[in-house]
Specification:
Structural class: mainly beta
Strand content: over 45%
Number of helices: 0
Helix content: under 10%
Largest sheet: 9 strands, antiparallel
Number of strands: 11
Length: 223
Amino acid sequence: MADATITFGATQVFGDLTGWSEQNTSLNKTSQRASVLGLTGNEVAGKLYDEKTEASASYQANVDGSAPSLPANIGALLNSAYILTGISVSTNWNAHATMDLTGHNHTDNAHAASPALNSVAHSITLTDGFGSTDFLGGTAGDNASVESSTIEITCEHEDKNQGDGKHLVGQNYNPMLTATVTWTGEPTSSNDGTWDQVEEITNSTNVAHNQHVYRGIKALAFS
């Protein structure tokens, strides 16, 4: 008997993204279920409704000496398939950058290119496909260097269903950036002045150089 015919490898969910290699993907299709119990407590009727697919994909940068681009707009419809509600990027001094994307769509009355939902350019870029990026835009000075960083680019999403339980309409709101940058040493400034710095941590140990960690939040706005 020959091998079974089963797909090997990751499947593109959000389309081809230049400078990135897809590592893992997940499509989670769910439905809500209504139920009616009879006189003796047994179910006598049930109905599925509001079928939705949650999509996620993990990537690793496959370039160095140049910077792979992130999906430009949070809230956009990617690959004519899923509304992008989350972009998460991590960088480290000794590794290629990683990125996670999350989104969703509906089986009935799916979100589409027209009418387009709210989306906005986040303007976040990587310094390089390899190594660390200062997403907060600080100034290193002579005695500090970025060790690692993360950024979360998100928006919230609200959906409403019609009278028969099928999806009717949805909209994105409250786009937001949240970044954390870890420095070896203390930078001259922790950010470029456009972020609300909500946390500063100083780490010291008897076997390593001091670290300074900064977390900042910046609101975006849908037009």
